[in-house]
Design brief:
- The structure holds two protein chains of two kinds.
- In chain A, α5 crosses α10 and α14 packs across α15.
- Chain A is of the alpha/beta class.
- In chain A, strands 1, 2, 5, 6, 7, 27 and 38 form a seven-stranded mixed sheet that branches.
- The relative contact order of chain A is 0.14.
- Chain A has 27 helices and 38 strands.
- Chain B has four domains: about 140 residues, Rossmann fold (3-Layer(aba) Sandwich), CATH 3.40.50; about 180 residues, FAD/NAD(P)-binding domain (3-Layer(bba) Sandwich); about 160 residues, FAD/NAD(P)-binding domain (3-Layer(bba) Sandwich), CATH 3.50.50; about 60 residues, 2-Layer Sandwich (Alpha-Beta Plaits).
- Chain B contains 14 helices and 32 strands.
- In chain B, α9 packs parallel to α10.
- Chain B starts with 5 loop residues before the first strand and ends in a 10-residue tail after the last helix.
- The chains are: A alpha/beta, B alpha/beta.
- At the A-B interface, α1, β4, α2, α25 and α27 of A face α2, α3, α6, α7 and α10 of B.
Chain lengths: ~900, ~575
């Protein structure tokens, strides 16, 4: 048996039982799912009826628990399952959640907290103020260890095919840490400049702010990136680093210097490999250099991006044609990233005539400084993808008379990005959908026009590309210039002898490792996937580097690459953020006029100003909690933080189990008429306790909306208790007393304030409680018997309380207050029964754990050897919880003694 | 003696101290003392981090004594002793200064004076620790036996629970039979268990246990000894006495029912009875409810009789008796179950059916009980008129209208009052609270312990409780007993008197002064000298000033220490810039 007893929950009841059992000599395992022991009591200001400081009562218990030789504490731990061994103890499976902190190394110095760029509502302060994602739960936490609050992947970071973490750099920009933002990006991907212009930004599509209709659209992630990149490049014309100090002696050849090849080279070099890139063309960059027109991606930005790679010592041999893989045999590994090449053919009559131009050739002409002269000419572009749009818009910039784009798809089906299509239309491109090419008209030498046929659908029922034409629809255009942009082909034919290709000419690889049919040859990018986009290509290059490294180091190739936490639930984010989200409009960046922009191939959208960028970054909702900006990782003096840390499972045997999982506070939003969550000056009892506590959020008693000291405070008792409409018919026992306590403390803090308590019955039943009530009466707290019906807010955020004055004569009345405290009750915590896999834990009709004989056998449950303590079985105040904890400890001791007796021969 | 190396740790107590005492100024002043190697201010010195910090400082700076200036030692003396021990230092090389209860909280109006007083207190602490000797706790064996006083439901259940964990029990009951109040009750709330059944069940089990002895018609006469090893004398029957040895004592002497004064709400009139009497009536009635041979059709309950008496001047019971609202709601439920046609009126002040008991109140209402709220200042009047009991009450809920209830039975919902127990209080030196019930040390930290080590209290002797709550507190006392006795030993404070035999000439003054008979005569080097029994000595110090030769001193509080503390306290706070 590993432990005599497992206690689940280290609140005041769990600690008290643990201490008593430990003192009796039993070995106790105390498991807490949160980052500190102490439960709810440590959150309180003072405790009734003695008005002891809650910290002063809790901390000695916490310290004694932590230092007890017979008690082992596991924080951040949840119980997955408990199996009963037929009276012979229990098998327990638990999960130690990752908080991304090595607890053995963390010294609780809170350096991480000071560098963290994410602010999150602070549960310890009942969400009244914010804390950092990297934080220590509260000042008296035991053990005092940091926690990184990472709730999952933020949608933007989860989505990025290149593994870039937009949440990270956005939060860094928000914090004014621009260089750090750039470096964080560089750690994840080497071509930030290109991505800041030419990425289609899937992150923005997934952004919670855009996903939710009630808000004003996504965070302008790409524009923020562009700000941070431009700012960095302006100040750093060269990278601040050089080649790695030590190389491992192994050599890698990369075929192709597009985004895939450059990225693989970057990561491999950083890992110590000597990398040589072979590039057919005169300059590196692939599609970024020769394909994308300069108004979308200025070539100086690309050139500076490439320096990020070449600064590491990567050699790029341009104008170098590779004829076979065998010619690269002196390298340990070859990575083929040869990309796409020449366009597909229309396969119609007349296609061989002069005036038909392939899109790649057209764009190459522009990017190499020898553009096609189409000035004043009517131009037709065929195709509905991004390349087609690039061609059409470029044609306008070359002075074409008018540009007509024809495609098979409908507007919605066009593969080009929506905003690109819109900009093309704005610039004057005419978009013609549902048209297929029937034939190219010509005069024998030159084209003279195109005949189109109607296209009724492009995909069949299996969603395969299979266009259906409608012979009844047709049209014709007269033109001398036709740019064909209907798709690209993988540039792989020269390798077909050596490695396996598929029917379409794509290289066959293990899609996980990118290894080809030859073990030492890897391939990625368009050559493998078919035409994609820059950010996906970067992702391929990164993946290749990861597995090439593992291959060359002889390590397990089954390792998972780039494992991300599951994406957070956006609906949940919205509902949590609730009314705290400010609905500010996103920044519209400055663009030059259309007539101006068409005169050149210059960028037409301005980089955001610093103010605009920070404003935009401030719109981020911090969906995943931690942004993975990694500031804490580099700051931690103990090196205790690792964002890759995984949860750990553990199996244990214990003699008995005690459940001390406490209670939850009623969510007052479930009484909408009282305005909690809508009106800032309607707070709940827990928040008032925090405002009054020594570790208080505001350091004074003020109301949340404007920091004014309240002068007329109301308490609404029985909020969420004794109320069937709120789903809780029971009395919560503690609310009368804590409200009386708060009223008295408020009288001390704000001697001039009026305090009114609206009640049904004042239930001060415990030892010294009635006296406490009389004391409050003596301090001139105003007691009104009557239930509050609803609360309204007026202009200055004061509150109008509607109630029935039962003792008065006038019936329903209203009264003005500047702060209202909802004395919320306590509810059971569910989930305990689910832990028990081969035995049944009975729950009572109010969802508390059932005590099978509450009169004589406190804490005994339906399972022999399983006990429940404190508020797990019924709402209890602290004195009664402590007594119950003691009683259950004696039950557990009795059970264990009996078990010991049985096991003796 | 080599120069001491001291550490002083000043706690802000999250503002409790630092709001009124300038802790940083204290630190700067104290730091100048040449013996002080470390002076620090912490927000919560008692927090785990605060404790770790002290340990680190003791080890790194090689400290040989520390002062913690924080809250009352009642809260944290043991905490910081443990810290000192964990750092490898003798725990008596730590001195606690109470900067909160005795300084910041007492002088919230004058920050400057509070700070000055704080400085003096810390100086005294430094003076004390710099003369402190390393001491070892006195370890005494504990007996695995407990004395339980009172064989009501709390005492019986405690005895069984003690027996369960291997502690033998002597169970002493004053009455001729065990069972207490519960024995006479019928169905009890909320689970409808019959009192007599509960007691029978417990007694059967008690009789089966070899390690429980039940003495009825018995009474505690005398207690001597100390925690872990008490000797008690118990009267059995009329004449016999028996001596027992026990490691601890649990007091479960229960409560008394409030008996209304004659005329109080018509008490004394036929048909005006207490809740207990009504419970007995219910328990003994089978199909119809009859009183004095007359069928009952209307019952009126008057709540808070003998409880929450804020307007009464003569020995009022100010407290709420806790159980009565739920018990009455339950009685109403049982009444309706017997005969749904009986009309029931509840004249209440606040209905305190807390927690799950709210369901009883709900059930009573659903069964037709009418609840009328009255103000304490205009209580209901009960009169006999023409052979009928008439209750008049001003009902607040209908705007103070006077309502007349023609009743067959008026039930006075009487509360619990402390039981008269002067003898026991005297023998055990039990602390009694303002309300007359026994007082625990701290409702949250030590809710069943008393200031007398080894003596625990539980059940309704502490205050009003229902069945489940009594049992719960009884078993809490059991677990504290277990924690004390199962180890087999207990460590006592070494603050005992010590005789310097070289100086002593045996005059006997000290032995006469000792109230614990801890000092005896012995022979040392051929002469008569005094010797102290460390187990019996309570460290009270009454002997010390009686010695003409100054041959007797108190460990931990030596004359030299006290004198130097007085000097430190009295020393002027003139120029704290140069002087600490």
């Amino acid at each position: 048996m590993d432990y005599d007893v497992l206690i689940i929950g280290a609140g005041v009841s769990g600690m008290e039982s643990a201490l008593t059992l430990g003192d009796m000599g039993f070995k106790v395992l105390l498991v807490e799912k949160k980052a500190s022991i102490g439960g709810n009591m440590i959150l309180l200001s003072k405790v009734f009826p003695t008005l002891d400081c809650a910290s002063c009562i809790s901390t000695p218990k916490m310290a004694a628990t932590a230092n007890h030789p017979n008690i082992k504490i596991l924080i951040n731990t949840e119980i997955e399952s408990v199996y009963s061994n037929n009276g012979n103890g229990f098998m327990v499976n638990l999960v130690r959640k990752s908080t991304f902190i090595d607890l053995a190394k963390c010294t609780g110095c809170a350096q991480c907290e000071t560098t963290c760029t994410v602010a999150i509502a602070d549960e310890f302060n009942a969400n009244l103020i914010a804390r950092r994602a990297a934080h220590i739960a509260f000042p008296q936490a035991v053990p005092k260890k940091a926690t990184i609050d990472r709730r999952g992947s933020s949608p933007c970071s989860y989505t990025c095919p290149a593994g870039v973490k937009p949440h990270g750099y956005v939060s860094l920009v928000r914090a004014g840490k621009y260089d750090e933002a750039f470096k964080q990006h560089l750690d994840d991907a080497p071509l930030p400049g290109c991505l800041s212009r030419a990425c289609y930004a899937p992150c923005e599509e997934e952004c919670t702010r855009g996903y939710h209709d009630g808000m004003d659209g996504n965070v302008s992630i790409r524009s923020i990136k562009r700000f941070m990149v431009d700012r960095y490049y302006k100040n750093h014309s060269e990278p601040s680093y050089g080649p790695p100090e030590k190389l491992n002696g192994k050599k890698v050849a990369i075929v192709g210097s597009g985004p895939t090849g450059l990225t693989a080279a970057y990561f491999l070099t950083k890992s110590g490999y000597s990398v040589t890139i072979f590039e057919l063309k005169s300059e590196p960059g692939g599609i970024m250099r020769w394909g994308i027109p300069p108004y979308r991606l200025p070539k100086n930005v690309l050139a500076r991006d490439i320096k990020n790679i070449t600064a590491l010592g990567v050699e790029i041999r341009t104008n170098f044609k590779i004829n076979s893989l065998d010619s690269l045999r002196q390298f340990d590994t070859i990575f083929v990233a040869s990309g796409s090449t020449g366009g597909r053919k229309l396969a119609v009559h007349g296609e061989d005539k002069t005036g038909i131009i392939d899109c790649i050739d057209f764009l190459y002409g522009i990017n190499s400084g020898f553009p096609l002269n189409i000035k004043g000419k009517k131009t037709v572009v065929i195709g509905g993808g991004n390349v087609a749009i690039d061609c059409a818009r470029s044609a306008l910039r070359l002075g074409a008379a008018d540009v007509h784009l024809f495609c098979l798809e409908s507007r919605e089906e066009m593969p080009a990005h929506k905003w690109e299509i819109q900009e093309a239309i704005d610039e004057g491109v005419s978009i013609n959908c549902h048209w297929g090419v029937r034939q190219i008209r010509n005069d024998g030498i030159n084209v003279t026009g195109v005949d189109f046929i109607g296209c009724s659908s492009i995909f069949d029922k299996d969603n395969r590309f299979n266009p259906k034409y409608d012979e009844t629809m047709c049209t014709s255009v007269e033109t001398g210039i036709i740019i064909v942009a209907i798709g690209l082909k993988p540039n792989t034919t020269i390798f077909s002898e050596e490695i396996a290709l598929n029917r379409n000419g794509k290289i066959l690889v293990n899609t996980e490792t990118l290894q080809t049919s030859l073990p030492h040859v890897f391939a990625g990018g368009d050559a493998v996937t078919g035409p994609a986009n820059i950010v996906k290509s970067i992702g391929q290059g990164k993946r290749a580097a990861f597995f090439i490294d593992r291959y060359l180091q002889g390590r397990d190739m089954n390792e998972r690459f780039d494992e991300r936490m599951p994406m957070v639930d956006r609906d949940e984010i919205i509902s949590h953020a609730g009314d705290n989200v400010s609905l500010r409009k996103p920044v519209i960046s400055n663009k030059i006029t259309i007539s101006e922009r068409l005169k050149t191939f210059e960028e037409f959208e301005a980089t955001m100003t610093e103010e605009q960028a920070r404003y935009s970054a401030n719109l981020c909702l911090d969906c995943g909690g931690c942004s993975q900006c990694r500031q804490c990782v580099s700051t931690c003096p103990a090196g205790a933080i690792s964002l890759d840390m995984q949860p750990e499972k553990q199996n244990l045997s214990v003699g008995s189990v005690a459940i001390a999982t406490g209670f939850q506070v009623f969510d007052a939003r479930n009484k909408p008429s009282l305005g909690f969550g809508r009106f800032p000056n309607v707070i709940n009892g827990m928040q008032m306790d925090r405002i009054l506590a020594p570790t208080r959020p505001y350091n004074a008693v003020v109301r949340p909306s404007d920091g004014k000291a309240p002068s007329n405070i109301a308490f609404v008792l029985c909020t969420g208790s004794r109320d069937e409409t709120a789903g809780n018919r029971l009395c919560s026992r503690v609310c009368c007393m804590y409200s009386l306590k708060q009223a008295q403390l408020l009288m001390g803090a704000l001697p001039l304030a009026d305090i009114t308590i609206y009640y049904i019955d004042i239930r001060t039943f415990g030892k010294g409680y009635e006296e406490f009530y009389q004391q409050a009466k003596g301090m001139a707290v105003n007691f009104v018997k009557g239930k509050v019906a609803r609360i309204e807010e007026i202009d200055n955020q004061d509150l109008l309380v509607y109630y029935e004055d039962i003792e008065g004569k006038d019936g329903s009345k209203k009264s003005m207050h500047d702060l209202v405290v909802l004395s919320v009750g306590m509810l059971p915590v569910s989930g305990a029964a689910k832990m028990f896999k081969n035995s049944s834990l009975l729950i009572d009709e109010s969802s508390y754990i059932k005590e099978i004989d509450e009169d004589l056998e406190p804490g005994r449950t339906s399972i022999d050897g399983v006990f429940a303590i404190g508020s797990a079985t019924a709402v209890r105040d602290i004195p009664d919880t402590i007594l119950h904890s003691g009683a259950v400890a004696s039950q557990i001791a009795a059970y264990l003694q009996k078990a010991k007796g049985r096991s003796k021969p | 003696m080599t120069k001491r190396r001291l550490g002083v740790f000043i706690c802000q107590c999250g503002g409790n101290i630092s709001d009124f005492v300038d802790t940083e100024q204290l630190r700067q002043s104290i730091e100048k003392n040449s013996l002080v190697m470390v002076a620090q201010v912490n927000m919560f010195t008692c927090s785990d981090a605060g404790q770790q910090n002290i340990i680190t400082e003791i080890i790194n700076k090689n400290l040989d004594g520390i002062v913690v200036a924080s809250c009352s030692p009642k809260l944290h003396l043991n905490t910081f002793r443990a810290v000192t021990r964990r750092a490898g230092l003798n725990e008596y090389q730590y001195v606690h200064v109470n900067l909160r209860e005795q300084c910041s909280w007492a002088h919230t109006h004058d920050k400057k004076a509070a700070t000055e007083k704080g400085l003096r207190l810390i100086r005294a602490g430094i003076a004390k620790v710099s003369l402190a000797n390393s001491l070892e706790k006195l370890r005494v064996k504990t007996l695995p036996h407990a004395l339980v006083i009172g064989a009501g439901v709390a005492g019986l259940r405690a005895a069984l629970a003690l027996s369960d964990i291997g502690v033998g029990v002597h169970l002493v009951e004053k009455n001729h039979h065990a069972g207490g109040m519960v024995l006479q009750w019928g169905k009890m709330f909320p689970n409808d268990k019959k009192g007599s059944y509960v007691i029978k069940h417990l007694l059967n089990e008690i009789h089966r246990r070899e390690n429980i002895t039940l003495f009825t018609n018995a009474e505690l006469l005398e207690k001597t000894g100390h925690i872990g090893d008490f000797s008690v004398k118990v009267r059995l029957g009329n004449n016999d006495t028996i001596s027992l040895k026990v490691g601890s004592i649990i007091v479960a002497t229960g409560f008394d029912t409030y008996i209304p004064q004659s005329g109080e709400y018509g008490y004394g009139l036929t048909g005006v009875i207490t809740l207990s009497e009504y419970e007995e009536l219910l328990a003994s009635s089978m199909e119809t409810l009859q009183y004095n041979g007359k069928e009952i059709k209307t019952v009126t309950y008057i709540y808070c009789v003998g409880s929450r008496e804020n307007t009464k001047t003569d020995k009022p019971h100010l407290y709420c008796s806790r159980y009565c609202c739920s018990a009455t709601s339950h009685a109403a439920k049982c009444t309706s179950e017997m005969n749904p046609d009986i009309r029931q009126f509840h004249l209440f002040r606040d209905v305190r059916t807390y927690g799950k008991y709210e369901q009883l109140y709900e059930k009573a209402r659903n069964n037709g009980s009418i609840f009328l709220r009255f103000d304490e200042k205009s209580p209901p009047q009960v009169k006999e008129e023409k052979g009928r009991l008439i209750v008049r009450v001003k009902d607040i809920l209908t705007g103070g209208e006077e309502i007349e209830i023609d009743s067959d039975l008026v039930v006075l919902v009487t509360g619990m009052v402390p039981r008269e127990n002067a003898g026991l209080v005297n023998i055990l030196k039990l602390p009694v609270g303002k309300d007359g019930f026994f007082n625990e040390i701290h409702t949250k930290l030590r809710p069943v312990e008393t200031v007398i080590d080894g003596v625990f209290i539980c059940g309704t002797s502490q205050g009003p409780k229902n069945l489940a709550e009594s049992v719960t507190s009884a078993m809490a006392a059991v677990s504290k007993t277990g924690a004390l006795l199962l180890k087999g030993y207990v460590d006592l404070e070494p603050f005992v008197a010590k005789v310097n035999a070289d100086l002593c000439t045996w005059c006997g003054n000290c032995a006469k002064a000792c109230p614990y008979s801890a000092i005896e005569q012995t022979i040392f080097n051929g002469k008569q000298v005094a010797i102290v029994s460390p187990v019996l000595c309570k460290g009270e110090g009454a002997c010390v000033p009686t010695c003409p030769k100054q041959a007797i001193d108190l460990e931990g509080y030596t004359n030299r220490q006290i004198e130097s503390m007085i000097d430190a306290l009295a020393k002027e706070v003139i120029n704290e810039k140069t002087d600490a």
